[in-house]
Amino acid sequence: MAAGFAVAALYHLAALAIPAFANIAYPPMYPPLRHVAFVIADVLGASLFLSRPRWFLWPYLVLTLQVLQGHGVRAWRTWTLERRINWIDAITVLVVLFGLILLLLDRAQRRRFVR
Question: pLDDT tens digits, residue range 78-102?
């Protein structure tokens, strides 16, 4: 998961540094500040997945809900309206849900170990 967050950070960093890439990968109105925010969030996500503090589950749950609201809704709309899969949205949703499952399993394992 940490590697996935690092790749996402590099993806957004590339969109900031390479305008031709940003023009292909994102709509024209996508604000550069949003790329900056995601670079920061993704770097934090990578480092927090490596250290896995107990409290990390809660902000990650909020991130998961945001991803479902954004990427999940867009993936669903693309599928229902256009009958095609938007791979970036689908992969993002699946990977973030997988991360949540990993954090929940980690939490359960820690509780078992403490008892």
Answer: 999 999 999 999 999 999 999 999 9
